[in-house]
Amino acid sequence: PTTPDSERPAQALLRDYALHTDTAAGLLIRSIHLVTQRLNSQWRQDMSISLAALELLSGLAKVRVAADCSERRRAISSVCSYIVFQCSRPAPLHSRDLHSMIVAAFQCLCVWLTEHPGMLDEKDCLKEVLEIVELGISGSKSKNSEQEVKYKGDKEPNPASMRVKDAAEATLTCIMQLLGAFPSPSGPASPCSLVNEATLIKYSRLPTINKHSFRYFVLDNSVLLAMLEQPLGNEQILIRGTSGRFAWAQQLCLLPRGAKANQKSFVPEPRPAPKNDVGLKYSVKHRPFPEEVDKIPFVKADLSIPDLHEIVNEELEERHEKLRNGMAQQIIFETSIDQKSEEEWRKKSFPDPVTECKPPPPAQEFQTARLFLSHFGFLSLEALKEPANSRLPPHLIALDSALPGFFDDLGYLDLLPCRPFDTVFIFYMKAGQKTSQEILKNMESSRIVQPHFLEFLLSLGWSVDVGKHPGWTGHVSTSWSINSCSDEEVPEQDDLVISEDVGASIFNGQKKVLYYADALTEIAFVVPSAVESLTDSLESNVSDQESDSNMDLLPGILKQQSLTLELFPNHTDNLNPSQRLSPTSRSKRVPQGRTIPPMGPETKVYVVWVERYDDIENFPLPDLVSETSTGVETTANSSASLRSATPEKEVPVIFIHPLNTGLFRIKLQGATGKFNMVIPLVDGMIVSRRALGFLVRQTVINICRRKRLESDSYSPPHVRRKQKISDIVHKYRSRQLEPHFYTSLFQEAGLKNCNP
Length: 756
Known about the structure:
five-stranded antiparallel beta sheet; Rossmann fold; elongated; 10% strand; alpha+beta; eight-stranded mixed beta sheet; 21 helices
């Protein structure tokens, strides 16, 4: 109920009626204002209305209309105020339903932040959102208007519930890692990196690299680091956390980027060249004694030794001449040697490479783990010690990758999804049909169905190749796989019939599916189809004008020559129509060595296009439930079982009936209970052709979110990943003493320590 104008404040009336509601922006602002006002006044006590209002706000966040930032800020502040009110209610009023309302509010807040990341550029908005996150995680704010500031480290964690805490942590992850970073370079199908150990080994092209060349560490029991120590020019680090897997290529850089670009290696400053021609050069004849010695008069003692010429006779003169000639030759020889050495010295480069003092060349190979952990401050003595009075492990833990089963658990962690995933199965029901086989055969050719149905399919999502798709494909056996596709193309089989008109059955999950993803969820749209015999495939190749006109609606997707309707030609010829199963109902074999982790409650929705509205009562839902296996519904996660865990009457079904006016009538089935009154589509609604695809997709997202809110066994993706990392730490922790740990950092990766 809405408040009459007579009971509303005059200022609110003037503000509302002053808006230009005849424009798209005015209508959006008016809608946000009315919903936020009622949400924090009349509706916050009612769970069903609150959930619907939050879903409406989430839908309004996706409307691309230029509006004032203050109006968007109003929506975010309203959701934050709603969370504060619900968390501050007395303890006796806290129940699972109340906590579900808080979780839904956090999800609505994430939608607004991912659709409008620029809102957090405002300081006040960022502060308000982070205070709400703190309230959800710890149970109270650090700063209140009346109390003093209480630091987060001094507070005792007391959240409203673990579900509320998980929702607040998911919001914090969304703020820190998704805002402005989606879609990632790997595409919207994967918010994480597609690089893992196998990829690095493949593209390093070094024969010495294998899976044991990595060092593994865990930080704060929530972040798993894999470091590759090989001379690749840069250091490769894989980071596995609660929000996914990320790859970083790092390089040790001690120079500015400009200097690094101009010179490849460090070169010291050269010395200046000597200038020998500077100044005057004097020829000085050196004396053995100073000139003053000659002025001293001789005494008798000086004359006691006669001069040489006084005692020389003929014999001594001959010997003296010989000595004089030898001395002259020696002088000439030594003079020539001096001149030659001086010329050689002049020809030498300066400085002399033999005697010059040079700096050592810079190191080209580094021990990545030791330097990285040291530079980031993780190698302190306190980081390796067990926290006092706590069961938590140390801040830094080394893992032993040589233990059996380590890489299997690592692959198990990579299989855990980073976002909630949903599945939609789409059927086409012609007038008068009642059996499941008749309905499944409608997808075999585009000429059988209405053109608007094919247009509706392409408005739900885009086509992806199951074998190369890194996201959700509709079945756990083929989802979230990387490095599963070889570069070599599979050779075509000549014995298969090439069919161009495969209709919507191309999206049956065997080779292709329709896919949609945003920052918070991913959906696979699967079109189940029956397996035909070879004769039926030949008959389906006959085309007519109607087929050609319908095929134009699927450009480049349905017209693929390498596809055929006959998937098993050797086994289906002798089967009658009642014995043929759809590809989705067959057991999909899990790849060898791949363990499927538990995925929580199954969230799938059926969308049925009915030509005649009265045929809705004859829709064979029990028969088609067995045709829609996702692998999630089995208890032991064995995709061989087709037993559905969801009762048939609770499976949500959206019926779409095209009217002669060009509009579409909606019929909802299975949406009962307080958690299933979902919008934007409601029972009996008439929608336009343009809005049909978006409204169906948004309704599916809201239905599956309600399903997860209702489930007791559901854990958010970041919680499951954190639990798996803790399990890996418990199983593969390296039990080394501190001296042995530090010693191992100086050894090559893969070497065993020789512990005494």
